[in-house]
Amino acid sequence: MDISALEREIVEADLSSPEAQQRFRQKFLKKGGVLDELFAKLRSLPQEQRKELGTQLNRLRALAQGRVEVAGSVENSPSTALSTDATFPRLTLSSGGRHPLSIVEERVIRLFQRLGYSLADGPEIEDDWHNFTALNFEPDHPARDMQDTFFINPSAGRLLRTHTSTVQVRVMEAMRPPIRILAPGRVYRHETISARAHVYFHQIEGLYIDTHVSAADLRATLEYFIRSFFGEKTRTRWRASYFPFTEMSAEVDIGCLICGGEGCPVCKYSGWVEVLGCGMVDPNVLTACGISPEAYRGFAFGLGVERITQLLFGIPDLRLFGQNNISFLESFRGYGYAL
Ligand code: DAH
Question: Residue 205 in 3-state DSSP?
């Protein structure tokens, strides 16, 4: 007997009217129905076939019962009332979508994967070594202050990581060059929550270590990224900066996408917005992680995911990312992986 044909018949049967449901019940579930007869035949089969077929028949019976139950409940549900009661409130089914930060993170990852970067990960609960010391922070650097960092256990140096640069350290400790990684993740800072600041946000860290990595490579890589991400015509501005873990250090601004450079609240009327920090990895950091600064050089960069998401979509208030406001989230539904 053809179990799968029977199964198809059960799955595909039309149960849209009470009469059809009645016929279905008669055929499959009542005494004398198809399944009932098959169960009767079971008894005449040898032991080993009985078990196999018995399982199949039980499954079909459950399937048929399920179909009748669902059809019966749809019958009585408010959505049927819709067709007869024009005053009944509209019921909508909405599908989910991806969070804008995930959409953007995914896109950044894909752009760097084309350059041969792979993904790396690290814990959000960190220690002083990975968050500060190995990254060449002086013992009295202000970022080590309780005012900027959430400490879990200050005396044990346990803290919530303040940046994804911690993953640089972990990767260099674990791998030999050449290293080319991207590390996305959540970071925490002791800030007053406002439209521009939050106690947690997301960063993506990049690290490239090899024998001949130069500042020209750094510049070409990030210019490629910015143009691919924000558009071919995007203007960039490189500013000398300072980070304990890079020497030279730079910050990169792009021409404000909201006002086109004319000045608006987003760019604080300067026409430029900072999108990332970067630099050549400080030799002290290489040494701390067990990599010889004589043999290897590298660059690193860190970018804020909220920041570039705000710029890309014109989102004025950072707090929207964490509020689970359905209409805000639904406005990104169409993007999927297409961005
Ligand atoms: N860790 C820095 C921050 O949180 C961002 C950063 C700057 C990362 C320069 C880097 C870098 O790797 O080279 O503000």
Answer: strand
